[in-house]
Structures are given as C-alpha cells and as structure tokens.
Amino acid sequence: MRKYMNILAIESSCDETAAAIVRDGRNVLSNIISSQIDIHKLYGGVVPEIASRKHIEKVIQVIDEALCEAKLTMEEVDAVAVTYGPGLVGALLVGVSAAKAIAFAHNKPLIGVHHIEGHISANYIENKELEPPFLCLVVSGGHTNLVIVKDYGEYEVLGKTRDDAAGEAFDKVARAIGLGYPGGPKIQKISEEGNKEAIAFPRAKVVDNPFDFSFSGVKSAVLNYLNSCEMKGEEVNRADVAASFQEAVVDVLVSHTIEGAKRLGFNKIAMAGGVASNTALRTGMKEECEKRGFSLYYPSPVLCTDNAAMIGAAAYYDYKKGLISDLTLNAVPSLKLGQR
What we know:
Layout: E1 6-11, E2 16-23, E3 27-35, H1 37-40, H2 48-70, E4 79-85, H3 89-106, E5 110-114, H4 115-126, E6 134-139, E7 144-151, E8 154-160, H5 166-176, H6 183-191, H7 216-232, H8 238-264, E9 268-272, H9 279-292, E10 295-297, H10 301-304, H11 309-320
Parallel strand pairs: 1-4, 4-5, 6-9, 9-10
Antiparallel strand pairs: 1-2, 2-3, 6-7, 7-8
C-alpha cells in the first residue's frame, strides 16, 4: 500500500481549463493550464458561453497531459478533486461532469472543492512550513475577501467587498484608459512609468465593518477624472492615472489586512488570487509586515491565477477530514466559503 496520496484535480470555474496531479497536498507532480485569455481579449472580458465551450474542448486534453507529465496512470491516482463553486455555472459544470465521470469509471473518491479554498491552499505548495491559523487576503477578478484560516478547511470571512472585486476594478479602469483586457497586468506595467502620487484617488471605508472593501468609488473617481480632463481639453497621462489608481487599491488592501492581523493577534499573513501577483501589492504588504515582524506568504504568479494544483492541495486536507462528495455533486455558482 502506498504511503502517499495522489490526487487528480480539475479546475474550470472561469476561463482557464486546468488539471494537476498533487501528492500529499503540497507536492505538485504536474500542473497543466489551458488559458482562454487571447479569445476573451477580443470582447474585453470573459464571455461565459464561449468559456464553457472551450472547457468542453480542452478538459480531457489537460487531464491526459497532467497524467502524462506526472508519469502516472489512473490506477495510481487515489482521488479526483474538482472546483464546484463559485464561478460561471456553465464552466463549472464541465469540470464537475468530467470529475464525476472519471471518479465513477475508476471507482475513486470524489472531492468537491471551493474555489476560494483552493486559492488559499495554493500557499501550502511552496511554503512547506505554513500551517493554520493565519490571516489570508484573497484578491482576484471575482473575489476580494479577508479570511481567517482557523484550520485546514475551516474559515471565517472577516471582510469582503461590498461591490467590485479589486481585480474587477482593475479591468474596468484599464478599459477606461484604453489598455484593454486583462486589466491587472496592463495597469501594473504602465504604472511603472507613472507617478503614484500624481492624483489623489479616494480610499473607501465601510462604516459598519472596517474590514470590508469597496472599490466602486475609486473606479468612479477615475472615470470622473477622465471625463473632467476631456471636458477641459487636458491631456491625460495614462501612466499617472494607472499608478495613482493602483496605489489607492493597494493602500486599502494592505491597510485592511494589517489592521485585521493586529486586532486579532495574527503574526502570519498570506495572500492568494490573481491580484496577489501584483508587484506593488507584494511590495507594500512586505514592507508593512517587516515593520511589525509579521511573516508573509504568497504563491508564485502561476499559482496565483486559476489552476488545478491549488484545488488538489485543498482537496487533500478535505479528504483527511472525511469531506468526500458523492455523485450528486453539482455546480454551485454562488457557493459561499465554508458552505457544503
């Protein structure tokens, strides 16, 4: 009998079709990602119907590649894991259907994984020493959450966005200043040429919960600034706009996270999600953590974006707690963290 556990993981919640083989939750034997960015770039954002169709085309291919790269057969796989929410319902259904079919055909346990839990668990892959409890900032195109990680699979949401997610705001501002999609990397790049103190964009505070986020205000402030420049016939310095906007978002993300850690007594902070790969955010968080003697963890950029390795990492700890799904598992597009 093997002393380790191999999990085949599948992720298809948005516009990446991914499969991975993860051993014992922290060792990635393969991590295959088929991105649809070039397709959705034509439309300025993700088109759900197109995403679903592309998942159907790619899902078996990435699974086969993951097994091949890991040099394993399905007989050497111990369980099948899949993202079942939150996300685009059609996209989720492709991954869930594939996982259920494979689990049934090969008589393997099925593990349904929450997408945000996957992002949090990405930190375990490269930070072998990291263990709960800690505070995690999950920040992406669809999510901005400040999460207390009490234990593996046990979470409490300390704060969340009231409107736009941070990544969503990046996309909208990038579109407004003519950078296109995806907004995050493009704003980061042009910001390097700009002055982050050129324009004083607002930092929103939510009165009834100091740890909640709101980014619609800063997005609107950027749009108002652009409209004002147009009406006055003034030239817009796109680099300054991008840098000032990015600084406002990073300032809020960092300050909320640091304040949460201080109040709750955490000295370990992690970051996860696509925006966690933003250089300004990493630098700002690192500086504040160093001032206070906090330990900071974040994954490599490839593990910040949607991938299946993070799903395999989360699934391992769910399996150890006996959290196994049956073949009635369905896609839940608005699944809340901690809900099963």
